[in-house]
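Entry 14. Structure prediction run on the chain below.
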Amino acid sequence: MNTKLVDSIIQLIMTLPEEEQGLLKEKLLIETSVPSTTELMQLAQKSASLDFLYEEPDLYTLEDGEPI
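Output returned:
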């Protein structure tokens, strides 16, 4: 890992005006944000990675278990 480069970048960022630092942080957080539940559900639907579950037998019904 190039720690000198990282330190230099941090020093450079710290010299930016607050507004530009905020913009940089915002852009970095957008790039590394965690996908939402909806995005994950859409990804699972589109990728067909869980389609094998359609072949699984229905083990449970609405009558199973205790009512809440």
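Residues 58 and 64 are 12 Å apart (CA to CA).
Filed with the rest of this week's runs.
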